[in-house]
Amino acid sequence: MEELVPVVCPWCSVGCRLYIVSVNGHPRKIEWDYDHPNTPNRGKLCPKGVASYQFTISPDRLKKPLIKRNGKFEEVSWEEAIRYVAQKFKEIIEEDGPEALAFLGSERCSLEDNYVLQKLARALGTNNVEFAGRLCQSSNFVARSKVFGSPAQTNPFDDIVKSKVILVWGYNPAETNPVLFGQYFEKALDNGAKMIVVDPIKTKTAKFADIHLQPYPGTDLAVALAMLNHIIKNELYDKKFVEERTDNFEELAKSVEEYTPEWAEKVSGVPAEMIKRAAELLATGGNATIVLNEGVNQHANGTMTALAIANLIAITGNIGKEGVFSGVIPGAHCGLCAAVPGVNCAQLPGPVPLNEENAKKFSELWGFDVPRKPGLHYQAIFKAMAEGKVKGIFIMGQNPARSLANSSLIEEALEKAFVVVSDIFPTETTKFADVILPAASWYEKTGTVITQNRRVMRSFKAIKPPGEAKPDWEILVMLARELGVGEYFNYSSVDDILREINRAIPALKGATPERLNSNLEGCFYPCPDEESETPRLFLKGFPTKTGRAQLTPVKWVQPGEVPDEEYPLWLTNFRQVGHFHTGTMSMRSKSLIKRWPESFLMINPEDAKALGIRDGDRVRVETRRGSLVVRAMVTDRIRKGVVAMPWHWGVNFLTKDDAIDEFSKMPELKAVACRVTKE
Ligand code: SF4
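Above: inputs. Below: predicted complex with iron/sulfur cluster.
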């Protein structure tokens, strides 16, 4: 019998509402909702959304639990697999304590999956629990928390259309969030808005720009400091907003005195006059949308750049009102499903800081003593693993062997530990696993998702999981019982978990199963009761000590690595519309891998000529960490002195693990020195 089941597209943080048409639990096609507020695209859908069920029917799906014995994986029963994992974890705890264990959650999993994962880590006595948000959004998270008292995105997407200026920084929404770009950004431009894009690459988004600034990778901070300098020096800031709603303006002004546009030109390669024009447009052009992404965040100076941008948002008065919009919009699935339930080594569900008061509160709610000592951040977990300090890890829906900086070091670390991976496919990481547990995919389970504009929605089980695959939360509950902490995980359905989340996180109190199951549009959180929601934040003040935005002094910080004689080019990376993360799902989706089949290197015609490289040649891209061979794409879409690769094909073998942002712990993923030679 044909069924039409409402789901949420799992491929990016916009969260379009889709329907899976299935027959007896087998998917046939995708339909979409022409009227849902998150899918107001009237008949258009991006290629990833249309293809979004194809990977679920791949023959590669994991169907049975596997244990590695004598170097080979053997199929075993669930009981045997869980007993084996529990026994190994107990041995590790007995010999080295709970901090020798680590847990990785995933933005690819539901709010409930992630909530149960972090609770299990804490029930066992460790805060070593992280997810990939550390590698994409953490710099902006730290910066906005400091300036606005909260990292949250402020307004509904509809407010983008009402903006007069759009500043897009290190982000390519036309490629990574195509429905959002077409439906909101382009409509604003049609209404006369002007757009500034900051990106070393002439992206699809940059083609729409009135001003395109192309800094060298990792020097965005210089541009942001100079924009602050120009706006403050020429008194172009919003004086009323600064006076009434911010603190520390004088300190901020003093901190940027030396960073003139002329100085920034020398550092970033962006002409001073263009920086001034961009600053003037932002300050005087009217209500603005200011969005940023990995191009800002994924640097060793990412927090300082995000702080400078948060200051720009505040002094131009583009927050706390209707018709403006600011924040990060991930090109991948929204990290809020893992960030909000506290999958973070220093935060508990909310998220709230891991401090005595909050640890006590959660100890009372959960019935066990929450460990007080902060855990290790993502990259540090693997460093500790390489040193033999972390001996066991549970990895839920992550592929750190490809996603972390300097991936070959991560592989060496994984070799040394007892590794359990719960996933839907074999990945580069499962090669290092001792146990692989087959998980149900997004469309094969019911779960809650939080999209990037804080909309909380339910996605429903539309397809039968293959073989014996199970939802992650069920796997974790089985493991908790075998580990002797089952009494704290008394859930028989995903609704039971959401009800506990309603009690644990005041901002989600009103996002009850009853509300989300019956209302497909969901609600904007904070929703302190079932009747309320909050589409716009900070209308009356900021959640800071004074209720005012805390302008924060900023300073220049070098990127983690700069070109030199040996490695004379900057290497950066970008996302493609047809791929998701390390490609474990999108590269198994027929229509996507056919259109986006391989990696390549974008190189400027002048650099290519100097190196004797022609379009289509095979070239070796080499950094101090390793090398990859790909085809060259000779194009003026990239500026001279910079080369760029899509990151889905293992580009992190080349990136730098030992240059880390001191505040966000983000490794330098987007700017490293390289050399290119013809093969
Ligand atoms: Fe899915 Fe994002 Fe495309 Fe919407 S825009 S269909 S959520 S990938």
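The chain has a mean pLDDT of 93.
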